[in-house]
Design goal:
By secondary structure, this protein is an alpha/beta fold. Helices cover 34% and strands 19% of the residues. Strand 12 and strand 13 form a beta hairpin.
Length: 337
């Protein structure tokens, strides 16, 4: 699978990444065998970028990903994790986590973007994963913590990067405006952008994508299905958009996009995966993968040919913004090491 390098770092990402949130029992229980089979299938398909976080299953995702990677050559894959939520003992457990993961709540999350909090978080992550280093560290959802994240957390990560302990640093968020600030005002190399550059939402064109292009920095795209509405060939009422029931007007727009996709001989989910690559600063699309079957489907969709003419037609019909770039080849078709 093709790879692209994060500028000014030694870190290169395969075009498709493995998102490990779901193997932390997101929304439902996933067995060890299922999660291990998914990770192995991703490896066999050529995926070499794996993303996790302490938040995912209160550490379960990190433990599972680390265990499954332990016998693989360390130089051949990239792992990212996140900082900003420490896992601390839960003084008032209720039996199960309340943030979407089906795990015991013996631990709870504690926001901490201080220097000491970031260092402690990374030490805990290395312990859970069994790794000796992390390739990328993102600050996780610092929406309400800009000042501390910018003044304490990012300088701490930059020191570790400059010492060679971490390969690249950045932030991951569901909004694009603050990610642009991280690129412009801090030492961030790369940001993880969730749901803001998709077939249904191109708001990242207003801030973070121009910042990345101006500064020669990189963006990893996640949430490209907008919580599900773009994940099927034929969207329907009752599907989710950004974790809530999709409004009727968005369902109709997704249906219209699906019709244009079909006319071009491709499918809506394949186009949803291909779309972020229309911007040259986006070097990777990472998808949540729970089972080996999901891995197979995602790889097949990723490899499906999506003609540039599709973007032209979507622009012409007003279904995507007129300033969407297209025709440069896309991140998945470029090998740049």
């Amino acid at each position: 699978m093709h790879q692209r390098k994060i500028p000014n770092t030694s870190v290169a990402l395969t075009a498709l990444g493995f998102g490990a949130s779901v193997i932390g029992n997101l929304y439902r229980v996933t067995s060890v065998d299922e999660s291990t089979a998914a990770i192995d299938a991703a490896w066999d398909a050529g995926i070499r970028y794996f993303d996790t976080a302490p938040h995912y299953g209160l550490g379960l995702s990190e433990r599972r990903l680390g265990a499954a990677r332990r016998d693989r050559p360390r130089a051949e894959y990239v792992i990212s994790s996140k900082a900003g939520r420490l896992l601390v003992p839960n003084e008032e457990p209720r039996g199960v986590d309340t943030e979407g993961f089906v795990v015991r709540d013996d631990l709870r999350r504690q926001w901490d973007f201080s220097r000491d909090g970031v260092l402690r978080s990374l030490e805990d992550t290395l312990q859970r994963t069994g790794l000796d280093r992390l390739d990328i560290v993102y600050l996780h959802d610092p929406d309400d913590h800009w000042q501390q994240a910018a003044d304490e957390a990012m300088p701490a990560l930059a020191e570790l990067r400059d010492q060679g302990v971490i390969g690249a640093i950045g932030a991951g968020m569901n909004q694009s405006a603050m990610l642009a600030r991280f690129l412009r005002e801090t030492a961030a190399d790369v940001v993880m952008l969730a749901g803001r550059y998709t077939l249904l939402d191109q708001s990242a064109l207003d801030d973070v994508l121009p910042a990345a292009r101006d500064l020669g920095k990189s963006v990893v795209a996640v949430g490209v299905f907008n919580s599900g509405l773009l994940s099927r060939d034929r969207p329907a009422e009752g599907m989710k958009y950004d974790y809530q029931d999709a409004p009727t007007d968005l369902v109709r727009r997704a249906q219209a996009i699906a019709e244009v996709c079909a006319a071009h001989g491709t499918s809506l989910p394949a186009a949803a995966i291909a779309f972020p690559y229309t911007h040259p600063s986006i070097i990777n699309v990472t998808l949540g993968m729970r089972t080996a079957q999901q891995v197979g489907r995602n790889v097949e969709l990723h490899d499906q040919h999506v003609p540039d003419g599709l973007w032209d037609d979507l622009r012409a019909q007003g279904l995507i913004r007129s300033d969407v770039l297209a025709g440069h080849g896309g991140g998945r078709d470029v090998r740049c090491l």
